[in-house]
Amino acid sequence: MPTFTCAQLISKHPEAWQAATVHPFLQQCQQGTIAPEQFNTWLVQDYLFVLEFTRMAARLIAIAPSEHLDTLLGGMVAIKDELLWFQAKATERALDLSTTPQPTCRRYCQVMQSIATRSYAVQSTAFWAIELAYNQGWQSHSPMPTPYTEFADRWGNAGFTDYVKVLEQQADSALFSATEAEQQEAEKIFLDIALLEKDFWQMAFAAH
Ligand code: MP5
């Protein structure tokens, strides 16, 4: 049975991945020309996204092999800090986080929920893709000027890159022993995520 790796998913779908990680939203953050309204829309909607991503991480931990737990629990600790950090950033900007998710954010949350009953191979591939999208997206538009520097650093820093590499190894080991049907599902969710990442940037970019 042919198997593929995470790296092969990216090399098979370079355009989809490029669109997920390179966007005028990030380019204008880097140039310092993004409007506060656009950035604040991203910030609030991303907080809502991370709330749902937390639950996806919990489901992943629930089905992970024991030797994968250390990395995943480390990720969970980072998410705990990140939620508090989002709250602090929102307070600084006088933003209300208890708002309704926009349609794109809601769709992304639904996709994360929809894989709840899928195999570990599928869920770990999705988890890796979501983390890699932010790692590469922010990193490739770094350095950013203030006040965006800390945002680019949060997902672009070397430690986060290392964490995403371990996630890749863990997803690869799951894909290696996955059935062909599971591999097909993993490829599909990867493409769904690539599209949703692009749409998420566009949602914020279109805010005015
Ligand atoms: C992430 C994110 C990364 N915050 N938002 C989107 C739309 N995609 C990926 O997740 P995390 O938990 O912030 O590292």
Keywords:
77% helix, 10 helices, single chain, 208 residues, mainly alpha, binds (4-amino-2-methylpyrimidin-5-yl)methyl dihydrogen phosphate
Descriptive overview:
The protein has 208 residues and is mainly α. Helix content is 77%, strand content 0%. The chain has ten helices and no strands. It has helices at 6-12, 14-21, 24-31, 36-63, 69-92, 103-114, 120-139, 149-156, 158-176, 180-205. Helix 7 (120-139) runs antiparallel to helix 8 (149-156). The chain is globular. The termini are far apart. (4-amino-2-methylpyrimidin-5-yl)methyl dihydrogen phosphate binds next to helix 4, helix 5, helix 7 and helix 10.
Which helices and strands appear, and what pairs or packs with what?
Blueprint: H1 6-12, H2 14-21, H3 24-31, H4 36-63, H5 69-92, H6 103-114, H7 120-139, H8 149-156, H9 158-176, H10 180-205
Helix pairs in contact: 2-10, 4-5, 4-6, 4-7, 4-10, 6-10, 7-8, 7-9, 7-10
Q: pLDDT under 50 segments (min length 5)?
A: none
Oligomerization category of the chains in this entry: single chain
Total of DSSP H or I helical runs spanning 4+ residues: 10
Element order: H for helix, E for strand: HHHHHHHHHH
Estimate the mean pLDDT confidence: 97
- Intertermini distance: 50 Å
The SS-based structural class is mainly alpha
